């Protein structure tokens, strides 16, 4: 049997009297691309923030490749091979685009791997080119459009060469054409993981999205949460025809 990859057990988060998440348990396999969906306020971002230790769980446990990682500092979690993009993108606006990515490349994980990577700058350029914004490398981040900022956010995450990548609304605010581009890049990254001189197995992914029709095209499995609890888990086809999920969330969207 394959070694467990990400295992989330009984994760719970309360904010004062608010139960944001109650006893969430799920697993992600090494080769999976999983969607995490649910209505606004269901607890999706909170789930990612707890796994990456930006928020401390009220209770519950997270393990990665057999090791308990609950409560480790976020920098250590990144170094173990987990990266995440934020729902709200906050680059260093006054710095050039490439410098924003180079900051990620400086994490020990990225530095340690691959003697063939001559410089951090080359690595950052590879990540930018993979995301389709190589030509903007020297521009200050402040001039980027919303769509390009989303791509920069992805470049920063993949520059750490994660084995597991969390994406919080990667299509948020993008046009249909931009959404399709990013969706294709994510699938390509997952399958081949090759960009520039870098190539790896391709990360497992957990993607939070409200744009369901695009999401359902690229994920293998979907987890639905509602009011901080898991409502359903299944293949995209199972989820879009699940009566409870339709009532709670999907409505006529898909
Ligand atoms: N830092 C916080 N302090 C207090 N309440 C919070 C905090 N972060 C989140 N919440 C609350 O926890 C619940 C879950 O929020 P979360 O951001 O995880 O939802 P979400 O599923 O990501 O929603 P959306 O689709 O709108 O991004 C919400 O009721 C939210 O208001
Ligand atoms: Mg959210």
How would you sum up this structure in a few lines?
By secondary structure, the protein is α/β, with parallel strands linked by helices. It has ten helices and twelve strands. The strands form three sheets. Strands 6-7-10-3-11-12 form a six-stranded mixed β-sheet, with helices on both faces.
Low-pLDDT sequence parts: none
Which architecture name does CATH use? 3-Layer(aba) Sandwich
Radius of gyration over all CA atoms, rounded? 18 Å
| Main sheet: strand order | 6-7-10-3-11-12
Largest sheet, if any? 6 strands, mixed
Q: Name the beta content range.
A: 25-35%
Question: How many alpha or pi helices?
Answer: 10
Our count of domains comes out at 1
Give the helices and strands as they follow along the chain. Answer: EEEHEEHEHHHHEHEEEHEEHH
Full CATH superfamily name: P-loop containing nucleotide triphosphate hydrolases
Explain this structure.
This protein has 254 residues and is α/β, with parallel strands linked by helices. It has a single domain (6-250), classed as P-loop containing nucleotide triphosphate hydrolases (Rossmann fold), CATH 3.40.50. The protein has ten helices and twelve strands. The strands form three sheets. It has a six-stranded mixed β-sheet, sandwiched between helices. Strands 2-1-4-5 form a four-stranded antiparallel β-sheet, covered by helices on one side. It is globular. The termini are far apart. Residues 44-45, 87, 168 line the site of magnesium ion.
